[in-house]
Write a structure and sequence with these properties.
Largest sheet of chain C: none
Structural class of chain C: mainly alpha
Structural class of chain A: mainly alpha
CATH superfamily of chain C: ABC transporter involved in vitamin B12 uptake, BtuC
CATH superfamily of chain A: ABC transporter involved in vitamin B12 uptake, BtuC
CATH architecture of chain A: Orthogonal Bundle
Number of helices of chain A: 14
Helix content of chain A: over 70%
CATH architecture of chain C: Orthogonal Bundle
Chains: A mainly alpha, B alpha/beta, C mainly alpha
Radius of gyration of chain C: 19 Å
Radius of gyration of chain A: 19 Å
Strand content of chain A: under 5%
Largest sheet of chain A: none
CATH class of chain A: Mainly Alpha
Largest interface: A-C, 36 and 42 residues
Shape of chain C: globular
Order of helices and strands of chain C: HHHHHHHHHHHHHH
Distance between the termini of chain C: 28 Å
Helix content of chain C: over 70%
Oligomer: heterotrimer
Distance between the termini of chain A: 34 Å
Number of domains of chain C: 1
CATH class of chain C: Mainly Alpha
Chain lengths: 314, 250, 320
């Protein structure tokens, strides 16, 4: 008898959540529930966003090694954020409600990513390798530009962004939690509704067109969703380089079939387990100061190399 | 009927199709032949909307390409491209099920399942139906792809050099099956073929292309002559009639 | 003849840039101050001149190393700082700083060179397993490999509270360079210069293993020699100024587009261009946001990424 990985995943995730909420609590329940509850919600939200964005991105690029983060998506978000501080100035920036800044950045990110990745993915029979390399270089470019703009900003204003530009799971910006929940829910429902169409797009351009899918339009829709999801996760915890790749690769390994109806929830579950479980282990069991993202990047990087070295690019 | 009018296509300044106008009759099997680089696959890709129209018009019955919904066309016309790269791990049955997508958008009803089963049976894939595609041989995988277009159950079936990499037994089996589809189920088959003898033997109608233009169209027994081989293919080969079909001697 | 002409131009350009570099910085200093204010000579001797020399040396040495690495790996898109060598060196320094904080500078250097060598060897092992038909896979693997080494380093740095050092080592910056704190770089200059004398052997290695064996070359020995050169230069640069990305990639590519691939002929030009480019970037970094400074690593990150993208799309189809 085959055991459904979705059920196991749900149970493990629940276990992780319980441990996360209760370990080393010291009995201050009222405070713990509020403080850790928000953190838990943010972690789950980030897990869902990152894993869904990665899966969608792999589907439209028809490639199991690419992730939005490898292609410099979240670096682009940080760059846009930095640019807006540079343009408005940190005084103005801090006066604006964070939700307004977030929405503005989101719109800019969607526009920029459609212009950039839309053309990149739109190339008919594109050279995938060149595409990945382009993405990585874009990532470096965005990060270097961010560093450059940071230096151009008055050193006093520099601090405004510095706190936002690297992944930190122990300090989470909760002011954006509500808007993130709303956006994320809308995006995830949209993804779920197009799961069958995504299955068709995953078959490749020719086959999808033959089956009557408008691949170009679907790519645009997916890129918008990816931009929303990446913005949510980056705004909450900062860039997480290899989390998506790690999660989706694991999900493909254990999934009984490769349809999006299975992969979407499975990826979200695995992402939640890695984030909540990993954070529990690092913070409460091992007591390490290192952020989880560093460990995830290390393991995720190894997964990437393994994927590339094992399969090559056929 | 498929009507192509004044089709031009160029990539990076190189003109691949020159003002192509041709009618592909409804019913029976039409084969596109011609030397390498004649534009056969490009023409087929335009009819199947895989390439964007630059100038010209293409109509499939009452549907005009570029103006009709892609999903409507998917119920009328199916294409089997030259190469299909899959990154997804699919079983044979899962792949064939996708052939029903244009009809049911992924929610398969009893009729759809019946058609999937019929496709599996027609191609003798019963034993392989639960195997993953990447565990199959090239020939078996190819068969599964054809079975998917079979399940799509369209009036028109377009195939781009489907005999590449198939051995003689598989090639003959596939051609016989396509012949049967045309004869018993009234499907229209449009096929790009490299081997003139296969084209002459199985097709009802030939479209000969050269340098991005239509050279001539007609019945195989009228067209395939020593003159055609010399003028279009640039080779001095002899043609003999075998069982009332022209046969190019190697 | 033509090449000699261009080389002369480059030398002249280097002198012009070096002169400009002496008079650009936080403290304003004009040529007239030299005979009016004796303190200006101290400024030049202690800070401006060392900085200029450091930029020239690290630029040319890294460009040369990039060229050597591209020849050894037989791929145009790799360079030490984005393929693990630089990160390996930084990892070595981190380890020695954690465990033997009082070790002499030279010992730290030596260990960093060793770890850089091992990191490069690891990269080479992986590259050998990649299909030769996919040249772009090589830089891809290199960058991810560098990222993994970087994550390892960040992990240890977090645990030992040394995060700020990582930034210093991985983001090249000349603002801290002064007399007494850059002299190790001369070793890098000497090592890179020595590479000139074995250039032909590297060039043969670039033809592939079979060709090298056929020509009677000890393949492994020359390969190790090349990696040692790269590792020492990378370690010295990382320790004294920090990693400068892309220099080793874009300079050899541009030089080779113009002058071909004869290593012995292109090495001096590559060195000159590398030195000039880094010095120019440093000067830009000093001017753009005066009186603050933008690290040369940042400037090269932007510039290098743009040129890399250009090479990727406008360059020759065959990346070998």
């Amino acid at each position: 008898m085959r055991i459904n990985p979705l059920i196991i995943g749900t149970l493990v995730l629940l276990g992780c959540c319980v441990l996360f909420m209760t370990l080393n609590s010291g009995g201050h329940w009222e405070f713990i529930l509020k403080f850790r509850g928000r953190k838990l919600a943010a972690l789950l939200l980030v897990g869902m966003s990152v894993s869904t964005a990665t899966l969608l991105f792999q589907t439209i690029s028809r490639n199991h090694i690419l992730t939005p983060s490898i292609m410099g998506f979240d670096a682009l978000y940080v760059l846009i954020l930095t640019m807006s501080v540079f343009v408005i100035g940190s005084a103005g920036f801090n006066q604006l409600p964070s939700q307004v800044v977030f929405t503005l950045n989101l719109v800019l990110l969607i526009a920029a990513s459609l212009a950039l990745f839309g053309t990149l993915l739109g190339q008919h029979r594109a050279d995938l390798m060149r595409m990945v390399l382009t993405g990585i270089i874009f990532g470096i470019l965005f990060r270097s530009l961010t560093a450059f703009v940071n230096r151009m900003i008055d050193p006093n204003e520099f601090a405004t962004i510095q706190v936002r530009s690297y992944a930190r799971f122990n300090y989470i910006d909760v002011s954006l939690l509500t808007i993130s929940v709303v956006l994320c829910t809308i995006a995830l429902i949209a993804c779920w509704r197009m799961r069958r169409q995504l299955d068709v797009v995953a078959l490749g351009y020719e086959t999808a067109v033959n089956l009557g899918e408008n691949v170009k339009r679907r790519q645009t829709q997916v890129l918008i969703l990816v931009a929303v999801l990446v913005s949510v996760s980056t705004a909450l915890v900062g860039p997480v380089a290899f989390l998506g790749l790690l999660v989706v690769s694991l999900a493909r390994l254990v999934a009984p079939n490769q349809t999006h109806a299975t992969l979407l929830p499975l990826c979200a579950l695995i992402a939640g387990i890695i984030l909540v479980g990993g954070q529990t282990i690092l913070e409460h069991i091992l007591g390490l100061a290192t952020p989880l993202s560093v460990v995830v990047d290390f393991v995720g990087g190894l997964v990437f190399l393994a994927l590339v070295l094992r399969k090559g690019w056929t | 009927m498929i009507t192509v009018e004044n089709l031009n296509y160029s990539v990076n300044g190189t003109q691949i199709l020159h003002d192509v106008s041709v009618d592909l009759p409804k019913g029976g099997m039409t084969a596109l032949i011609g030397p390498n680089g004649a534009g056969k696959s490009t023409l087929l890709s335009h009819v199947s909307r895989l390439l964007p129209l630059q100038t010209g018009r293409v109509r499939v019955d009452d549907l005009e390409i570029g103006h009709c919904a892609s999903s409507d066309l998917a119920r009328k016309l199916a294409i089997l491209p030259q190469q299909v790269h899959f990154v997804t791990r699919l079983s044979v049955r899962e792949l064939i099920r996708f052939g029903r997508y244009p009809h049911c958008k992924g929610r398969l009803g009893p009729k759809d399942h019946a058609r999937v089963d019929a496709a599996i049976e027609a191609f003798g894939l019963e034993a392989l139906s639960d195997r993953f595609l990447d565990t199959l041989s090239g020939g078996q995988r190819h068969k599964a792809h054809v079975a998917m277009t079979y399940a799509q159950d369209t009036d028109y079936l377009l195939l781009d050099e489907p005999l590449n990499n198939l051995d003689i037994a598989a090639s003959r089996a596939l051609m016989a099956l396509l012949r049967d589809l045309a004869d018993t189920q009234n499907k229209t088959i449009v096929i790009v073929l490299h081997d003139i003898n296969f084209a002459a033997h199985y097709a009802d109608h030939l479209v000969v292309m050269k340098d991005g233009q239509i050279n001539c169209t007609g019945r195989p027994e009228d067209l395939v002559t020593t003159a055609l081989l010399r003028d279009v293919f640039g080779t001095a080969a002899n043609v003999e009639m075998v069982c009332n079909k022209p046969y190019v001697l190697p | 003849m033509k090449r000699g002409y261009i080389a002369a131009l480059l030398v002249a350009g280097t002198f012009v840039l070096a002169t400009i570099s002496l008079f650009v910085g936080v403290i304003s200093l004009g040529p007239r101050d030299l005979w009016q204010d004796p303190a200006s000579w101290t400024l030049i001797a202690d800070s401006r001149l060392p900085r200029t020399i450091a930029a020239l040396i690290s630029g040319s040495a890294l460009a040369v190393c990039g060229l050597i690495m591209q020849t050894l790996v037989r791929n145009r898109f790799v360079e030490p700082m984005t393929a693990g060598t630089g990160q390996g060196a930084a990892l070595g320094i981190l380890v020695v700083t954690i465990f033997f904080p009082s070790a002499p500078m030279f010992a730290k250097m030596a260990l960093a060179s060793v770890t850089a060598l091992f990191a490069s060897l690891g990269f080479l092992m992986m590259v050998r397993r990649l299909p030769p038909t996919q040249p772009l896979l090589v830089p891809l693997v290199g960058m991810i490999y560098g990222g993994i080494l970087g994550a390892t380093m960040t992990f240890f740095a977090y645990q030992t509270d040394m995060l700020q050092f990582i930034d210093i080592w991985l983001n090249g910056d000349f603002s801290g360079i002064m007399r007494g704190r850059y002299e190790l770089l001369w070793i890098a200059a000497i090592v890179a210069a020595l590479a000139y004398f074995v250039a032909d052997q590297f060039a043969i290695l670039g033809l592939g293993r079979d060709a090298s064996v056929n020509l009677g070359l000890n393949y492994n020995q020359v390969m190790i020699m090349g990696l040692v050169v790269i590792s020492i230069v990378a370690a010295l640069t990382v320790v004294t100024v920090g990693a400068i990305p892309f220099i080793g990639l874009i300079v050899p590519n541009i030089v080779s587009r113009r002058f071909g691939d004869n290593l012995r002929q292109t090495l001096p030009l590559t060195a000159l261009c590398g030195g000039m480019l880094v010095l120019a970037s440093d000067i830009i970094g000093r001017i753009v946001r005066h009186p603050f400074e933008i690290p040369v690593g940042t400037i090269m990150g932007v510039l290098g990424a743009v040129v890399f993208l250009w090479l990727l799309y406008r360059g020759p189809r065959h990346a070998h």
